[in-house]
């Protein structure tokens, strides 16, 4: 997890140092600077003023970050200190300058006309000292004004009123600010673009400045998006020749360049792989699903080469890669030669372009998505017959299929087959990895995979047995499995070494098709005390595609890391999930937890009553501690739910652990999909049922301290997530061609970006999140969905 958001904690630590330095300088010098003085007229203040401005501008050379502390009122004091500095800059008397049409300044007063080549320690190179100084003062003033507003939002996240009204800035002024910032330090200009992501004037100007000064910014990874663009790739821009000399960026930023928009350009790919190879392979395994998907567009086999090299360097990387490669394959069902029918699969989406031909003058172009199996054994130019109600003829040449529909309106369809070569590549890459194992690496591979293949295969043994005999059947099979060695580990958590199986722990789970099983292992931390043995239950699923759960939990894990790095007291539990084969996978069980539905089987009371039974009376230390745990976990999942849009949030998919924390599980419906034919009945952005509000808000009218705390945490979590929007979107976008159901309709990536609202100011975003929380509060559709699930499935409401 350490490398997912590159150097985030280091950046925040640097920002904290910048905060302390800035506040120290303000406290020491601002009283003296309040007097009627200028930089030129009081030489004894020159050093202090220079240091002060250097600290202030240094603040803005860093990328924008949030941070939280345990110190009461620290955020408010910070905002007030910057506001005090804004007042000084506003009242500061500069030299009177007349600016001509060409931007040349003539100063009235002290003559500075002979200082065209001066380099100032704070302001940088200036063609005209007084004019340049004034432009930089204005830039610093504008930045500090917006920073004061931003910090005020963090200090008062639930205050829906704008702290101040800022005058509208013209396009020309934005361009001037950008050029001035770049002349002082290119990082300030790049930070300006990050602070105002929807400002096209800044983006256009920064792009031009970066490209004109490409050599000077090679040490700044944040400059990459301003010259590595799809257009630059199409044009094979000469600017891309700078990439071999460029400083390495974060993993998520590098992965963005693996998307199809960059068409596997060799220079771009070489840079991406240089970045990935600069990290230990174990730190890259988090993004293994995305790396496997990038093989689809790996025409130069550069990604494949990296994966093979990394597999040589790390056994764990190699094992996880093999499991993911196996998870992408299609089960061998094929064609029944006697029936003449093809069995279709609903995994991989293939895109159809339809052009209706009719007597009507109007021609309608429609884009459809169908799901079909890549049929094993189907050869080039082979024709087959399917259901005549659907297809009359299919002609496939491994790349393009022409399909004619039997209907009253003749449609010509071009079907682009994107999965054939990808599916053929997967077993080949897997075999190359295995062929590269030698000695100890080959031994651990065989023992690790043999052990967990035996456990997974128990499901097939149980299927013919009557339900009442299955638990005993699990025990018999587990007793046959021996633990071969002390270095076997849980595939979902390589840091957990398996020391044994609890043979009496096996439980068959309900399933319409196969028989998933839950088994508990004894595990120890790889780097911890080997005598500190703990239980860890895992579910072994057969017949279910768990890759979508992996994606959802990746986003939840990224959010958890963001919250931790920023210091926000929010809780998420990204439990481990790993696909190990076609429609097979291992899912970690959340320790010491029960579903809300299970809790309802033993009591008729709601959550409020259950918490009193489990933790004591209201007001007791144990009850209030559990309530706090519920608040911080509910707020964490509120932010995650807003972004991921998980549906089917019935009480079987909500867990509570033994200290009162909420955990969401089962992400079969996320982004654009929902149960009931995508009717999106659950209209709230996250579940906040009546019984949940009883714990969060004892007042019942959103007036309690605990509700204010919950609201504040939700807002801060959302603001922190917005700062890492690009990394989260890249993680999801790289899975777009995976065939996951969440990408089967609508515009999942575009709508995910919209939910971050990059066009909003911090205060507007805070108000949006506040509205989201209030809208979810005891929403009738939430109660209605729980009632439907109770009536249809018997799930306790």
Automatic annotation (TrEMBL):
Domain of life: Eukaryota
Record field: transmembrane: none
PANTHER family associated with the record: PHOSPHATIDYLINOSITOL 4-KINASE ALPHA, PHOSPHATIDYLINOSITOL KINASE
Compartments where located: Membrane
Domain PIK helical stretches: 175-348
GO cellular component: cytoplasm; plasma membrane
The protein's name: 1-phosphatidylinositol 4-kinase
Gene Ontology terms, MF aspect: 1-phosphatidylinositol 4-kinase activity
InterPro entries listed in its UniProt record: ARM-type_fold, Kinase-like_dom_sf, PI3/4_kinase, PI3/4_kinase_cat_dom, PI3/4_kinase_cat_sf, PI3/4_kinase_CS, PI3K_accessory_dom, PI3K_accessory_sf
Membrane topology qualifier: Peripheral membrane protein
SMART domains: PI3Ka (SM00145), PI3Kc (SM00146)
Matches recorded under Pfam families: PI3_PI4_kinase, PI3Ka, PI4K_N
Location of the PI3K/PI4K catalytic domain: 503-781
Family label: Belongs to the PI3/PI4-kinase family. Type III PI4K subfamily.
Keywords, ordered alphabetically: Kinase, Membrane, Transferase
EC assignment: 2.7.1.67
Main location: membrane
GO terms of biological process kind: phosphatidylinositol phosphate biosynthetic process; phosphatidylinositol-mediated signaling
């Amino acid at each position: 997890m350490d490398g997912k958001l590159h150097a985030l904690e280091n950046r925040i630590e640097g920002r904290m140092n910048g905060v302390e330095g800035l506040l120290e300088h303000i406290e020491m010098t601002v009283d003296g600077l309040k007097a009627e003085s200028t930089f030129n007229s009081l030489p004894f203040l020159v050093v202090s003023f220079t240091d002060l401005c250097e600290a202030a501008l240094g603040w803005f050379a860093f990328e924008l970050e949030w941070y939280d502390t345990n110190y009461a009122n620290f955020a408010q004091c910070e905002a007030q200190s910057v506001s005090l500095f804004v007042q000084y800059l506003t009242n500061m008397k500069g030299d009177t300058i007349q600016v001509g049409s060409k931007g040349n300044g003539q100063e009235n007063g002290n003559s500075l006309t002979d200082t065209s080549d001066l380099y100032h320690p704070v302001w940088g190179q200036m063609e005209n000292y007084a004019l340049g100084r004034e432009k930089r003062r204005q830039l610093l003033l504008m930045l500090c004004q917006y920073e004061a507003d931003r910090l005020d939002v963090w200090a008062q996240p639930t205050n829906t009123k704008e702290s101040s009204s800022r005058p509208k800035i013209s396009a020309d002024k934005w361009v001037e600010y950008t050029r001035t910032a770049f002349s002082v330090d290119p990082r300030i200009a790049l930070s300006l673009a990050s602070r105002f992501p929807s400002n096209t004037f800044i983006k256009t100007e920064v792009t031009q400045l970066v490209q004109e000064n490409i050599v000077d910014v090679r040490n700044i990874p944040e400059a990459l998006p301003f010259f590595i663009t799809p257009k630059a790739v199409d044009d094979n821009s000469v600017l891309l020749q700078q990439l071999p000399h460029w400083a390495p960026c974060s993993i998520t930023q590098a992965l963005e360049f693996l998307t199809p928009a960059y068409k596997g350009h060799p220079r771009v790919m070489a840079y991406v792989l240089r970045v990935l190879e600069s990290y230990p392979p174990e730190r890259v395994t988090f993004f293994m699903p995305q790396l496997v998907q990038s093989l689809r567009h790996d025409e130069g086999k550069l990604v494949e080469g990296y994966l093979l090299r990394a597999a040589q360097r790390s056994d764990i990387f190699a094992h996880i890669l093999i499991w993911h490669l196996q998870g992408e394959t299609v089960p061998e069902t094929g064609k029944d030669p006697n029936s003449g029918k093809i069995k279709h699969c609903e995994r991989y989406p293939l895109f159809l372009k339809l052009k209706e031909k009719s007597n009507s003058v109007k021609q309608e172009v429609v884009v459809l998505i169908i799901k079909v199996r890549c049929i094993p054994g189907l050869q080039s130019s082979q024709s087959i017959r399917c259901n005549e109600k659907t297809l009359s003829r299919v002609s496939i040449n491994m790349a393009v299929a022409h399909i004619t529909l039997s209907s009253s309106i003749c449609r010509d369809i071009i079907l682009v087959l994107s999965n054939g070569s990808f599916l053929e590549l997967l077993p080949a890459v897997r075999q190359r990895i295995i062929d590269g194992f030698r000695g100890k690496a080959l031994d651990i591979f065989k023992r690790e995979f043999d052990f967990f293949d035996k456990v997974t295969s128990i499901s097939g043994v149980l299927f013919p047995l009557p339900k009442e005999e299955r638990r005993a059947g699990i025990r018999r099979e587990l007793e046959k499995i021996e633990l071969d060695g002390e270095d076997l580990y849980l595939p979902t958590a390589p840091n957990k070494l398996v020391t044994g199986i609890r043979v009496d722990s096996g439980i068959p789970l309900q399933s319409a098709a196969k028989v998933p099983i839950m088994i508990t292992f004894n595990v120890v931390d790889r780097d911890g005390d080997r005598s500190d043995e703990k239980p860890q239950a895992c579910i072994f699923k057969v017949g279910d595609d768990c890759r979508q759960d992996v994606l959802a939990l990746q986003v939840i894990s990224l959010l958890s890391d963001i919250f931790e790095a920023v210091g926000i007291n929010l809780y998420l539990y990204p439990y481990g999930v790993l696909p190990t084969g076609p429609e097979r996978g291992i899912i970690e069980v959340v320790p010491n937890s029960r579903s809300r539905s299970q809790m309802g089987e033993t009591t008729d009371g709601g959550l409020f009553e259950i918490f009193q039974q489990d933790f004591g009376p209201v007001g007791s230390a144990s009850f209030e501690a559990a309530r706090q745990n519920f608040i911080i976990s509910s707020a964490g999942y509120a932010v995650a739910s807003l972004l991921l849009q998980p549906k089917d949030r019935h009480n079987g998919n909500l867990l509570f652990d033994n200290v009162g924390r909420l955990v969401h599980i089962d992400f079969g419906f996320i982004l654009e999909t929902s149960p009931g034919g995508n009717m999106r009945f659950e209209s709230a952005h996250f579940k906040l049922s009546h019984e949940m509000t009883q714990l969060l808000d004892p007042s019942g009218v959103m007036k309690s301290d605990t509700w204010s705390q919950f609201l504040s945490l939700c807002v801060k979590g959302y603001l922190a997530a917005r700062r890492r929007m690009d990394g989260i979107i890249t993680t999801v976008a790289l899975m777009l061609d995976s065939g996951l159901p969440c990408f089967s309709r609508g515009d999942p990536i575009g709508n995910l970006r919209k939910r971050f609202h990059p066009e909003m100011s911090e205060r507007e975003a805070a108000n949006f999140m506040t509205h989201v929380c209030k809208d979810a509060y005891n929403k009738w559709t939430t109660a209605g969905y729980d009632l439907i699930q109770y009536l249809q499935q018997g799930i306790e409401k």
